[in-house]
Design brief:
Layout lengths: L1 H12 L3 H5 L3 E9 L4 E6 L4 E6 L2 E6 L1 E3 L2 E2 L1 E7 L6 E9 L5 H5 L4 H10 L3 E4 L2 E5 L1
Parallel strand pairs: 1-10
Antiparallel strand pairs: 1-4, 2-3, 2-7, 5-6, 7-8, 8-9
Amino acid sequence: MKRTIIIGMAALSLAGCATIITGTTQSVTIKSVPEAAAISITNRAGEKIHSGNTPVTVSLKRGAGYFKPESYKVNIQKEGFEPQEITISGQVTGWYFGNIIFGGLVTGMLIVDPLTGAMFSLSPDNVDAAL
């Protein structure tokens, strides 16, 4: 039993706090009034990540590289309405600083969370566009 606890604690210390709690992707819901508007989502590199119609929930990567938050452009349009472009961007999440408290200072703060992008939270996570 004691050995299992030690192995479990060692495994947790090798992971990042934000990676464990929030993961590397985040669900973002996109709605519009009127519904059934066409959307396209591109990442910071200009690559199309998703296209479809509202309402939709997509899973987006939080990070774009080592210590680099991802950002997305959401284009929403429907015939007869003014198109909109909304930016979704990553900011450092509070869970990243949990590494200080829970012992992942070096591994979590400098390796795992920055590499996985889990140190970021995408905002907004709900997009409500009125066209």
